[in-house]
Amino acid sequence: MYINSKMVFYSQLHYYYYHLLPACRVFLFPYHQNKRTMQGEKELSHLLKNMNPTLNEGEYVFCTKKKMKEEYFNNVIMVFKEQEGITIILSKVEADRLHFEYSFIAKWITLNIHSSLAAVGLTAAFSKALTQENISCNVVAGYHHDHIFVDKKDAQKAMTVLNKFSRD
User: Which domain holds residue 160?
Assistant: First the structure.
């Protein structure tokens, strides 16, 4: 039988994973032991008090294209396929470089708490607070965090509104 380097590598990987790793998982990978951490936080009061918003550097835009080219993926923040086309969120600098059209220039705020995708009320709570200050928000849910895109002129005001949750 012919044995190549890939076969040796996979047999070693199998050995480590099934024989050595289980004994070490508790010590080396405690992250995987905490189901709350993996699934994210669901308790609304905890989410609001601990969302710790961060204003990311730069300006961001929403663009749409019929097809995605490989070069578009270099600095893309998000891609979402819709019936009408593909929505792309990327830095304004990158959009200008690629000669993409856009009509809205945003600042990007990240909520630095791992919220569960099944959490109820977080988006409603902060969007209501932003609405009361006449601030438009475009929300993107990532696996670990929620991201809010607000008009660049409203970024500091939005941060003030969001930070009030942790003080209340």
Answer: 41-60+94-167
The token pair at 86 is 């593909």
Report the number of distinct structural domains present in the chain.
2
Instruction: Note the pTM of the prediction, 2 decimals.
Output: 0.74
Query: At 54, which CATH number?
Result: 3.30.2130.10
Supply 57's token pair: 């550097």
- Long-range Cβ pairs for the range 70-74 (8 Å, 24+): 71/98, 72/98
Is the domain of 25 the same as that of 46? no
Residue-wise pLDDT for 7-59, tens only, equals: 433 344 343 344 433 433 333 334 344 444 457 888 888 888 989 999 999 99
Secondary structure of residue 146 in the 3-state scheme: strand
Q: Which of 75, 65, 64, 68 is nearest to 108 (CA)?
A: 75
Tell me the pLDDT tens digit for each residue of 96-130.
999 999 999 999 999 998 988 888 888 999 999 99
